Amino acid sequence: MITILSASRRLFSIVIALNLCCHLTFAKQSGRPNILFIAVDDLRCELGCYGVKEVISPNIDNLAATSVLFERAYCQQAVCNPSRVSLLTGLRPDSTHVWDLVTEMRTVMPNVITLPQYFRQHGYRAVAYGKIFHNPFPDAASWDEPTHNAQNVIAHSDENRAKLAAFKLQMKEAGKTDAAVKRMRGPATEIQEQPDERNYDGKQTGDAIEKMRELAKGESPFFLAVGYIRPHLPFIVPKPYWELYERDQIPLASNGFLPQDSPAVAFGDRSMGGFYEIRDYMDYADAPSPFERTLSETQQRELKHGYYASISFIDAQVGRLMACLTQLELEEETIVVLWSDHGWKLGEHAGWGKQTVYEIDTRAPLLIRVPGAAANGQVCKSLVEFVDIYPTLCELAGLPMSNDLEGISLAPLLDEPSASLKEAAFSQFPRKHDGKNYMGYAMRTDRYRYIEWFDAISGEVVARELYDHTTDAQENRNLGTDPANAELMSRLSAQLWNTLPRPAFPLGTVKS
């Protein structure tokens, strides 16, 4: 186990966990709780329950009111595939060797036991709807049924599909590469004139509800995972959710610029714009790099409106799931977890995407509701990591704990949210810059974010970053270039590498 607790903290954890377990009674013959595991793609902490009053999210807010809300939960790598693999295996990216979108988990870890797979091995019926693992790689060993994907749904309208076909033809005629043409997608936003059930996430919810009704009749406890695509781009949701917001009233980011004195490696190749995934949508194909300028105000408002509408749409689907749980009288028998794989920039640092090691991308929502937990309805401000979710659910379900996991159980925080189990949270991200490969490691303490960038081949440290959250919560100025902070950074570096194992250079190749 990577994170080491002191003997006193271990004793505290055992006492609190035993206290928590005393509250839990479940009706299944196994005496074990069901798990409703809700994953939301690209959702940052932009919810009413996280203090963002501009966002309309009543159902998730209601769930938060009966859950422990983790204020400072961090993913281990801010992009879909590595983050999900890390969470679902309980291992950090340097252990999984999944650092990109194209590496399949089972090719590098054929024998790894995933979270739902482990629950299956202990008598649970595990079923998935939508995006739980990264989309191209559904994992058969994890589930009792093939991952369900909604059928007979509509994404882009016929008109926009025709526009995309014409745009791709123009790209070919302009000499664009086949890869660029293949990667291009339709508009980044679309207002759908259709009911929720014709949208992928709406249909998935209906299908998952029917499955929940079926699972409720069984003798085995269930692990039902429901993965939502939105608010990932493109922002395509039904019209009523767009109408919840006045576009000209949506606040824009106040820090639409790169952090002062930040190293270029932190954002990747200037020619590519690094993390600028929005360029893959036809109406933003010519979007400027963050090194050049920000998007226009009109573009920023359109995108943020789409993101907010998408959140409200997903919120409605979560409400449907929770209503079914109540209708089936399963609330007192079911642990509910809602999480997102990472954050997302809405114009902060001039970006529209994830893929950095900064706070805005690595921090994401985490709600855990355990029937009878003393801290339900409270906010936990302790530092936690998504790699902790696997051991947490094992402990809550009374399953034996694997020694191979690299996180720790958060069960003590569900009874005493003011407790502290970790001194820091850790994230990383690979970067291609100036023809070389790099890896950045970030450590978030109560006060600081400290980052080291390594040459992925030689292991040489090429840049350091330091952000003080007491004076710079948005991480707008890198203090790591100031010689006055050398001693502080030396201490933070020692803390970083006394907790994490040093990477074995050269690191494996990170694919595009």
CATH superfamily heading of the largest domain: Alkaline Phosphatase, subunit A
Oligomerization category of the chains in this entry: single chain
Distance between the ends: 31 Å
Give, in spatial order, the strands making up the sheet with the most strands. Answer: 3-5-1-7-8-2-9
- How many distinct domains? 2
Helix-strand topology string:
HEHEHHHHEHHEHEEHHEHEEHEEEEH
Describe the protein.
The relative contact order is 0.18. With 512 residues, this protein is α/β, with parallel strands linked by helices. The model is unreliable at 1-19 (pLDDT under 50). Strands 3-5-1-7-8-2-9 form a seven-stranded mixed β-sheet, with helices on both faces. The radius of gyration is 22 Å and the shape is globular. It folds into two domains: 7-426, Alkaline Phosphatase, subunit A (3-Layer(aba) Sandwich); 427-499, Arylsulfatase, C-terminal domain (2-Layer Sandwich), CATH 3.30.1120.10. The protein is built from 14 helices and 13 strands.
Question: Brief overview, please?
Answer:
α2 crosses α11 (297-327). 50% of the residues are buried. The chain folds into two domains: 7-426, Alkaline Phosphatase, subunit A (3-Layer(aba) Sandwich); 427-499, Arylsulfatase, C-terminal domain.
What topology does this entry show?
Elements: H1 7-23, E1 34-40, H2 58-65, E2 68-74, H3 80-89, H4 93-96, H5 105-108, H6 115-121, E3 125-130, H7 158-173, H8 178-183, E4 189-192, H9 200-216, E5 222-228, E6 235-238, H10 239-242, H11 297-327, E7 334-340, H12 359-362, E8 366-369, E9 379-385, H13 389-396, E10 425-433, E11 436-444, E12 448-455, E13 461-468, H14 486-499
Parallel strand pairs: 1-5, 1-7, 2-9, 3-5, 4-6
Antiparallel strand pairs: 2-8, 7-8, 10-11, 11-12, 12-13
